[in-house]
Fold:
Amino acid sequence: RLFQIWNAAFDEADNGYDALDMIQETEYDVVLMDIEMKPINGFDTTNQLRKVRPDGTPPVIAMSAHNASEFEIELQQFGFADFIHKPFNPEVLFKKLSVHINQSNV
Structure:
């Protein structure tokens, strides 16, 4: 709903495997990645993405109800660009998306 309010186009993947397929087929400005997905979690999905896209595109923002401090090393190790805590403040999400979209379009 927020993306509609922001007039932003988006796609939604059912799982990490679908996300990887979609990212191979479509150029995305940014990806929101839930860490707790099944059957492949957000860390493994992003790790696979970085193997085929080592340039860091598209930027991936991790999403989790856990604190970022619990994942600090993994977030860097697996190539995440940022983190947002769930439930998130829409203004914070909008700012993070804006920063990463603007950086990827430079």
Summary: The radius of gyration is 13 Å. The mean pLDDT is 91. Residues 90-104 form the longest helix (15 residues). Helices lie at 2-5, 16-25, 42-52, 72-77, 90-104.
